[in-house]
Amino acid sequence: MNNQKIHFRHVMLWEFKQGNSAIATAQKLCSVYGEGVISDRAVRNWFVKFRSGDMTLKDEPRMGRPSDFDDDVAKDGSSF
């Protein structure tokens, strides 16, 4: 998991524990890190998870076919 993702999740957990709304948290993250860095929906999904008592910050396993996409190629801009 990349460092920015985990950092955002820590910030979201902090904001949740402070009693702030998901929308306000998304707006704060976008104002600090750039517009569109995270969606309102993504923050709301994390807040639902926190509200249920699950405070883990790891990705949950997903159903479906694993991705064949190479993140390293995308990062350095190399063509396929």
UniProtKB/TrEMBL annotation:
GO molecular function: DNA topoisomerase binding; double-stranded DNA binding; histone H3K36 methyltransferase activity; histone H3K4 methyltransferase activity; single-stranded DNA binding; single-stranded DNA endodeoxyribonuclease activity
Domain of life: Eukaryota
One record GO biological process: mitotic DNA integrity checkpoint signaling
GO CC terms: condensed chromosome; nucleus; site of double-strand break
Region (Disordered): 56-80
Keyword line: Methyltransferase, Transferase
Domain Mos1 transposase HTH per the UniProt entry, residue ranges: 5-54
InterPro entries, alphabetized: Mos1_HTH, Transposase-MT_Hybrid
Name of this chain's protein: Histone-lysine N-methyltransferase SETMAR
Organism of this sequence: Ornithodoros erraticus (European soft tick)
